[in-house]
Amino acid sequence: MSSTSVVNYSSTGPVATITLNRPESLNAMNVELMNGISDAMNQVEADKDIRVMVITGSGRGFCAGADLSAQTQNDRSEEGVSGADDFNGAVQAIYDCSVPTVAKVNGPVAGGGVGLALACDIVVAAKSAFILATFGPRLGIVPDLGTTWSLPRRAGRARALGMSLLGDRISAEQAEGWGLIWKAVEDDELDTEIDRITKTLSVTSSDAMTRIRQSIDAASVNSFSEQLDLEMVHQGVLLPRNMQEGATAFMEKREPVFKGRE
Questions:
Q1: pLDDT tens digits, residue range 234-243?
Q2: What residues does CATH 1.10.12 cover in the chain?
Q3: Long-range contacts for 22-25 (Cβ within 8 Å, ≥24 apart)?
Q4: Which has fewest Cβ within 10 Å: 7, 30, 100, 169?
Q5: Which residue intervals of the chain bear CATH 3.90.226.10?
Q6: What is the mean pLDDT of residues 214-226?
Q7: Residues β-bridged to residue 25
């Protein structure tokens, strides 16, 4: 295990876990925390034995968004410009991760925390958790950290606008129903569900998983013909790498054993 004062990083076999560690502020974001996430993501990329990354929060919350106490002590325009690269860089690193990413939402998600969670491939939330896009009605700013990209793609334009313009609290179960997250589970089942997901992802081909992500995201802007071509580009890499093992395992009625990252 390695850690900064505000971000803990650990790995167990092929599973890396990044834990936001500012529980006294519901893991509110500041430059130190975002840089800690970036450092942890660098460790994920450097360790070729890692096949799945989980990000979660310590204490009773996942992430409350930006640390507003810091904002009241600094000029907003100066702080916004100087810290943007640190904040955006951390979220971009999660979105671009070379292994599947899972957000383990153990409690409230608000503000920029929404973008952080939705940058992950799979989001699983405890039923006691909720999502709150506070940017517009509470702060008078635009949703950031990729929130305006993720919300309409996951939940549709009407719901993205409703959440962002009104700032209504969205329960974990409602978020699941909207397709905003993958699943809402009972609080005492969250660890078990995350273990189930990471067990599946930790034995798959990481390259295939990230190419699936790229393909799904490209579909919103590609024509059907362009999407067919993109699928074949990915298959050109994956078929010679994985298909023989997958087909052999299927015929032998066993689980496939795919190679890790190269």
A1: 999 999 999 9
A2: 206-251
A3: 22/58, 23/57, 23/58, 23/59, 23/60, 23/61, 24/59, 25/64, 25/67, 25/69
A4: 169
A5: 2-201
A6: 97
A7: none
Provide the CATH number for the domain formed by 206-251 in this structure: 1.10.12
Confidence of residue 185 (pLDDT cuts 50, 70, 90): very high
Strands (E), the chain: 2-3, 7-12, 15-20, 52-57, 101-105, 109-110, 122-126, 130-132, 169-171, 183-185
* pTM of the predicted structure, to 2 decimals: 0.92
Closest among 157, 189, 175, 202 to 53, alpha carbons compared: 202
Nearest to 104 by CA among 146, 145, 133, 61: 61
Q: Is the predicted pLDDT of residue 72 greater than 80, yes or no?
A: no
DSSP type of residue 187: G
